[in-house]
Design brief:
- The structure is a single chain.
- The protein is α+β, with helices and mostly antiparallel strands and about 130 residues long.
- It has two domains: about 40 residues, no CATH class; about 80 residues, Homing Intron 3 (I-Ppo) Encoded Endonuclease, Chain A (Alpha-Beta Complex), CATH 3.90.75.
- About 25% of the residues lie in helices and about 15% in strands.
- The strands form two sheets. A three-stranded antiparallel β-sheet has the order 1-2-3.
- The chain starts with about 25 loop residues before the first helix and ends with a helix.
């Protein structure tokens, strides 16, 4: 006969998920680990109050859902935002190129607006 799987519920009142660590489910354990209180249900970083976010590819994004260049998740790439607000480009299909190749150097003098083909050509010549 196979053993019957027995799980103990989370020790937080009203939670029926299985306990994992400290007699809490994964959700309550993470709340305790991040915020010190297993009952604190507020987001760790409120969605509308996020600061700059550095992507794994090195570009910086900010949360500004009302910006005309914002994606569906409300984020805008900073180099595009800087160039847009400076009037460097008015067509969202254009690409913004970092002249010195440093992706987090978003000074206006380091940015230029290029069409897709020219942008690919510039990056292609850098790889050779």
């Amino acid at each position: 006969m196979l053993p019957v799987s027995i799980f103990y519920p989370c020790s937080i009142k009203g939670c029926t998920r299985p306990a994992k660590s400290r007699n809490w489910c994964g959700t309550h354990y993470e709340r305790w680990r991040l915020k010190g209180d297993p009952l604190d249900a507020k987001p760790y970083r409120p969605y509308g109050q996020r600061g700059p976010f550095i992507r794994t590819d090195g570009y910086i994004e900010v949360y500004e859902p009302e910006h005309p260049l914002a994606r569906s998740d409300g984020r805008v790439m900073v180099h595009r935002k800087v160039a847009w607000e400076a009037g460097l480009f008015d067509d969202p299909s254009l690409h913004i190129h970092h002249i010195n190749g440093v992706k987090d150097d978003n000074r206006l003098e380091n940015l230029e607006a290029l069409d897709v083909v020219e942008h690919a050509r510039r990056h292609g010549s850098q790889r050779r």
